[in-house]
Amino acid sequence: MKQAVAAAALVIAASAAFIAWIVAGMAPRTEFVPYVEPRPAAEPGYLRAVYSPLHFRPAIDAATDAQCLSCHREVLEDRVRAAAPSGLKSDTLRAAYQETPTYAGEQETFHRRHLVTPLARQLMDLRCNTCHQGHEPREEAQGAAADAPPQSDAGFTLRKQVNPETTCLKCHGPFPWQPMGLPGPWEEHKAAFGNNCLTCHAAIRTKRHEVNYLKAAAIEEAGKAGAEACFGCHGGRSWYRIGYPYPRTPWPDMPAEVPEWAKDRPTQSEARFLKAAAQGTRP
Ligand code: HEC
Ligand code: HEC
Ligand code: HEC
Ligand code: HEC
Ligand code: HEC
């Protein structure tokens, strides 16, 4: 009995103390602590930047180079090393591409050679979003999560930030001599055609390069001097064995009959590259 009374007394004491504690907390404070907005970080958080809407569609489709470069300046500032790890100085060595007739100057990095080097500026007008169409920072594979691009999305290439088949392949495929009816590769037969593509292409497939990432007039100008500029994008820098299925844009005096190999070809460039399509402006 004594024990039960002691236990009840303990429960009552504990509850009373608890109620007193709550009430004390409810009483007005003597000191007023105003709410202060947390101080903005000097730089936006890393994760916030990784998940920037600019990395995803639709925002990336309308992004300007300047917007991307505000965080990724390094892609245009990175230069090749002055010396290889072995100690060899890069300015005493010639890279294979420095030996081509279209190249002038020192060695350069990937992004710079597509965006800012002399040949890039002369012939092309690539933007970040010509190649980059968004990526999934968590899973670099289709169908890995409910909200990831579906398995059927072939525009999203496993573990790559860029889809090579719809970008790189256009300018880095082999020389398509078979549909041209040439007897073999350009290197072996170019002399027969005066080493000039315009021998035939002044009249055949003359509607070309009308896309917002190429400078069509400058390309034709370069083609007059010889095949080098043309061949550079159509076989000269090939690192694919498959070819790109170019659109077959109707040209004046085009034969009405569509050859067998061209039956599945589109008749105009992809919509997002047509001149009228909106695209970001250069920085
Ligand atoms: C607010 C800053 C910010 C902006 C704007 C931004 N990025 Fe990023 N981006 C980042 C950060 C941070 C990462 C993660 C880098 C890492 O993990 O090494 C990243 C990652 C990337 C990657 C993947 C790199 C990798 O190896 O995983 C690509 C490609 C990329 N950004 C392209 C772009 C493009 C194209 C644009 C413009 C449409 C853009 N970014 C705009 C901050 C930004
Ligand atoms: C010719 C196509 C092309 C263009 C144009 C291009 N990129 Fe890239 N970029 C690539 C490829 C390919 C990679 C490597 C992707 C991979 O590893 O899967 C890459 C990688 C990157 C990365 C990852 C880090 C690195 O340096 O490897 C960033 C960031 C990036 N690009 C930003 C940009 C920005 C910003 C622009 C515009 C100023 C741009 N890119 C223009 C093709 C391009
Ligand atoms: C619109 C045409 C075009 C597209 C698209 C393009 N490139 Fe290029 N690429 C070029 C040109 C032109 C050069 C030569 C630039 C120079 O010499 O200054 C080049 C050079 C290169 C080189 C150096 C190779 C060499 O032999 O000199 C590599 C590697 C390369 N590109 C990879 C890529 C990748 C990867 C992509 C896709 C993400 C891509 N390119 C998309 C036109 C293109
Ligand atoms: C002997 C004439 C001839 C010469 C020389 C020639 N071409 Fe062609 N080219 C053709 C013909 C014919 C076609 C296919 C026309 C058609 O679509 O019916 C063609 C098609 C093409 C195509 C589109 C291929 C496709 O798969 O749709 C490209 C790209 C091309 N030529 C580039 C060049 C380049 C670059 C050179 C110079 C290095 C060159 N051609 C030299 C006759 C020639
Ligand atoms: C900077 C790279 C580059 C250079 C230089 C270049 N091309 Fe192209 N060419 C392309 C690309 C990219 C396409 C596909 C464009 C598209 O999708 O409409 C193309 C498409 C073509 C086509 C198919 C056009 C069609 O719509 O039927 C022909 C033919 C062609 N090029 C011939 C040439 C000739 C001839 C030259 C030299 C005067 C030349 N190219 C120089 C990149 C280049």
What brief labels describe this structure?
283 residues; mainly alpha; binds heme C
List strands and helices in order, with pairings.
Elements: H1 2-26, H2 46-50, H3 59-62, H4 65-72, H5 74-77, H6 110-115, H7 118-123, H8 128-131, H9 168-172, H10 177-180, H11 186-189, H12 198-201, H13 216-224, H14 228-236
Bound molecules: heme C (HEC) (5 copies).
Question: Would you kindly provide a written description of the structure presented here, covering whatever features stand out?
Answer:
It is a single chain. By secondary structure, the chain is mainly alpha-helical. Among the domains are: 46-77 and 108-162, no CATH class; 171-273, no CATH class. 34% of the residues lie in helices and 0% in strands. It has helices spanning 2-26, 46-50, 59-62, 65-72, 74-77, 110-115, 118-123, 128-131, 168-172, 177-180, 186-189, 198-201, 216-224, 228-236. The radius of gyration is 32 Å and the shape is elongated. It binds heme C (5 copies). One heme C (HEC) binds next to helix 2, helix 4 and helix 8.
Provide a short characterization of the protein structure.
This protein has 283 residues and is an all-alpha fold. It has 14 helices and no strands.
